[in-house]
């Protein structure tokens, strides 16, 4: 357990404080990508069970966030972007946050297993364990590759959604996993370029802190070059059609253009602006890529005159 860094207690914690522990903005993206995996999967699932599966993914993601805030409360107190979190401000007791996260973790996995299937439950348990033990407690403070390896935790939800329907994992769901996995480094490294001092002050070995901004810009460009064609793969695999494929090519080209601007900006006055632009676009990119998958599948089903 990390040394306490909590502020003075501000009274009895409210519902809003516990909701904040769940990292709702992160949870919303996890829920969305999990839903896409469920929607694209072949076969069918009862709507109630589908809702339960997505709810379990949301609860599991939130539980991971709560445990992450408990463990990282010392560095959260140092970083300006996290100083307002409920444990740091003393609004939630650290032990209460840990118990909250642990109970929700066990609850989400058990309900997923009992109500949906144990393959999806096992993947959900793996996701929570990976985020908490591998990323939060090990990688984040020990290596600049923390985001690369740790990004797997955020990439599992489409596989969980897929497994909720099919009971297994396929190459299609692995590709959805790979898209998010490859997207994560340039997304977070763009953030780290303009939040470098924050990470350095907290002692978190993000790539620009350890290897410098030039190497970070180079790695952003490399991962972007790998991401753009990878994101098109659902088209040739037959997971999606031409509507998605053409859209993914366009979105990937824009991502590459943003990465190239970061590389060309160097350490000049436009560098931070280029990093901020790519960071913002990367969020939009992932939302649009997965929205296109939904749109493409919906168009296909409508063209068949029904729903699969």
Automatic annotation (TrEMBL):
Q: Name one GO cellular component term.
A: plasma membrane
Check the record and name the PROSITE patterns matching this protein. UBIA
Q: Which domain of life is it from?
A: Bacteria
Q: Name one GO biological process term.
A: heme O biosynthetic process
State if DNA damage is listed as a keyword.
Answer: no
**Where does this one sit in the cell?**
Cell membrane
Q: Which Pfam families match?
A: UbiA (PF01040)
What are the entry keywords? Cell membrane, Heme biosynthesis, Membrane, Transferase, Transmembrane, Transmembrane helix
- List its EC numbers: 2.5.1.141
Query: Which sequence ranges are marked TM in the entry?
Result: 26-42, 48-71, 92-112, 118-139, 146-165, 171-196, 220-237, 243-263, 283-302
- HAMAP family registered for this protein in UniProt: CyoE_CtaB
Database matches in PANTHER family? 4-HYDROXYBENZOATE SOLANESYLTRANSFERASE (PTHR43448:SF7), PROTOHEME IX FARNESYLTRANSFERASE, MITOCHONDRIAL (PTHR43448)
What biological function has been recorded for the protein in this entry? Answer: Converts heme B (protoheme IX) to heme O by substitution of the vinyl group on carbon 2 of heme B porphyrin ring with a hydroxyethyl farnesyl side group.
What is the official name of this protein in its record? Protoheme IX farnesyltransferase
Q: Report which gene this protein is encoded by.
A: ctaB
